[in-house]
Amino acid sequence: MRTRTLGTTGPAVSELGLGLMGMSDLYGPADEAESIATVHAALDAGVTLMDTGDFYGMGHNEMLLRDALKGRDRERVVISVKFGAMRDPDGGWVGNDGRPAAVKNFLAYTLRRLGTDHVDVYRPARLDPQVPIEDTVGAIAEMVQAGHVRHIGLSEVGAETLRRAHAVHPIADLQIEYSLLSRGIEEDILPTARKLGIGITAYGVLSRGLLSGHWRPERQLAAGDFRGMSPRFQADNLQRNLDLVEALRRIAEAKGATVAQLAVAWVAAQGEDIVPLVGARRRDRLTESLAAAELALTAGDLAEIERAVPAGAAAGDRYAAPQMHHLDSETPKNAS
Fold this sequence. Notes:
The two termini are about 35 Å apart. The protein has one domain: TIM Barrel (Alpha-Beta Barrel), CATH 3.20.20.100. It contains eleven helices and twelve strands. A hairpin with a 6-residue loop joins strand 1 and strand 2. The chain has helices spanning about 30-45, 60-70, 100-115, 135-145, 160-170, 190-195, 235-255, 260-270, 285-290, 300-310, 320-325, and strands spanning about 5, 10-15, 15-20, 50-55, 80-85, 85, 95, 120-125, 150-155, 170-175, 200-205, 275-280. With about 325 residues, the chain is of the alpha/beta class. The strands form three sheets. An eight-stranded parallel beta barrel has the order 3-4-5-8-9-10-11-12, surrounded by seven helices. A two-stranded antiparallel ribbon has the order 1-2. Strands 6-7 form a two-stranded antiparallel ribbon.
């Protein structure tokens, strides 16, 4: 697989990365053996970027990745970890902690669960409104100096926060949702990242399955699947969004591709500084998504896709209102 570099200061990674969240949390039950087999299949296909979070399954996701990497060359894998989101015993969300002491505490536990001596990219999952971003990034920078972290990333922050953080220590990449249905970064956040030399790791490239081409309106979600609370999956919104998918399907089929492959390829085509993360939990879905790396989109293709799904066409916000409130990237000064 070809490689891309996370910004001007970050590591070289595969042009597509693997997001592991759904293997432990938020999308309903997952088969652990199949999850590990999927990680192995990704590694064998040349995927080097593995994205996890210490709060995915309250540590389960990191331990799953540790098990999947046994016997593999650690230095050939770039592990990206998000931290700071706090959970309760019932899986609820109880805030974010970006205090310097908490940064070091979270990292200590992550290193033990992963069975490694360093994290390649370490990032707060959300901005802690009670802690200046300079303090949080400064604490991670100390961990870089100590050798426990290789690069610093951010997640779901806006342009102003990017600038402030980058002034403290070079930021390798910003992880943020970006897809045909979520294009808010294009107005200010993406141009700012490019001006600063910060890469983008794009999650949600299939919009939580809406752009997979496999979603059906009658699908019943499993208990614990957060999409049951997502505005884009509600009643009329869902049908309007699936109508957009059908428009994409016609374009994809004309190219001998699937909707998922077209959606992933579109994100990858937005710039060499963007690395899409695919969230496959099974090997068949992984194989489908990775084939997007071989799908070349012409200027004509991109124009046709734009006509089918123009910016702002999605029905419903990408998160429910309480979650949107906690996104620095969606505050009035940052949202498009």
